[in-house]
Amino acid sequence: MTQYDSIGSSYLVVGELLFKQMELAMVRRAIRPLLKPNAKIVEFACGTGFYTQEILSWTTLTITAMDISPVMLGIASKSLSTSDSDRVRFVLGDGTISTSYAPDKSIGFFDCAFGGWFLNYTEKRSGLVAMFATIAHNLSHDGVFVGVVPHPAEDLVARKKAYSRPPLDRMWPRLEYIKEIDEGSGWRSRIHLNEDVSLLAAHMKKSVYEAAAREGGFRGKLRWIPEGIQELGFKDK
């Protein structure tokens, strides 16, 4: 995870990619109804603060934002306007270790949790369960988690082949599938943001995300929402 210490501000390029605006539209639709008055929000893997700033623009609430990289937290902090800086509490942490990110270290403090490209930073099924357990540890009994992961699919071999053919082989970001994870949960991959910036991650099977969520303590409804692509004028074929 600390690969981000070396990537640093180069990661800001992600905000310029077309897919990010598509993703942002879906995240906005999922999160805004959850931002009730007095709701307490925690963001996992805030990175350079792309989504931190977006969430701040959707509400007058405050946010606790964590990340494993002190470099990323520094960039995120500096990117905030003076008026927004008082509304964010940045915390250094490892999402695979069950920790309370509440100001008072209490359990179940937050009403809403968000993790944009957080769950893809473990190559072990046990690590994914640990991440969900950390999220559940921080959420109230009726709290909601919204996450962003690589394209939810069960046949990742087919997905691997798709990235070697048009149109995916011409688009950014581009996934390079390096090695199948031994336990059959998914693939180790390299995400190329452009020709110069890339990072290692894992693409787990859709069923693995769902099973890990249950094992990590989530008992409510699980829902995938790819239909937001249609709202932007694209057909999800």
UniProtKB/TrEMBL annotation:
PANTHER family named among the record's database cross-references: TRANS-ACONITATE 2-METHYLTRANSFERASE, TRANS-ACONITATE 2-METHYLTRANSFERASE-RELATED
Keywords, in A-Z order: Methyltransferase, Transferase
GO annotation terms (biological process): methylation
Protein name per its UniProtKB record: Methyltransferase domain-containing protein
Organism: Metarhizium brunneum
Pfam families per UniProt: Methyltransf_25 (PF13649)
Protein origin, superkingdom: Eukaryota
GO molecular function (one): methyltransferase activity
InterPro entries: Methyltransf_25 (IPR041698), SAM-dependent_MTases_sf (IPR029063)
Domain named Methyltransferase: residues: 41-143
